[in-house]
Amino acid sequence: MSCEWRANLDPYLDSELPDPAAADMATHLRGCQSCTAEALSRLQMKRTTHAVGRQFAPRREFRLKIEQSIGAAKRPRMEWRWAWSFSAVAALGLIVVSMAYWLQRSRGDQVLSQLADLHVSTLASAYPVDVVSSDQHTVKPWFQGKLPFSFNLPDLHDGPFRLLGGRVTYFQHSPGAHLLFQIREHRLSVLIFQDRPELSQLDLGSSVRRKLAFNVETWAEGDLRYFVVGDANRTDIHNLSELIKRAARS
Known about the structure:
single chain; alpha+beta
């Protein structure tokens, strides 16, 4: 049976819903596994469609090169040769620089999209965590022997955040920790993996990025890469990130 909320899924995923409606939709997704699963499916389709579209869309540098070639055909022969050589070199430089930037940005967007998928699929699961506890001294030891690294968790006593539990997850064939936190009606994913070059390209300092209807903050600490993903506001995402950072340094 189709849920009446389905009509708002695409505007929500595209960040086009106004704030009150977006908040209502986020609350609904936390309680409706059917809509959450559908949201995950649409996220994956949007990501695939976007990637294919970029492969076949003519790039700006290509159009610029054609315009320059047409304009050069109207000039004297010697001027045409000089202009063609200059424009060809300039176009080649632009293409190389743009391609490098595009590849890095594309890989980064793909990684963040996959992490958003992990977050959504966890919320859609009937059993989102394997160890259920709000005590960091229970959750942290549970991961021992299951991961090739260890990590610290913050003491959330009297704070606005609550630890719900955790589970082992896999990202690009590498195991990691997936921890679930809650603040008010929002659930946030904290994902921890061993840092790798393809993840280091995502180093945004302490900035927060908006990706596929979620806020994401990422940073490296030692040999580990941390991600905080959720539909909470940027301040909440950043505050939880700061708590995780202080725990990692203790």
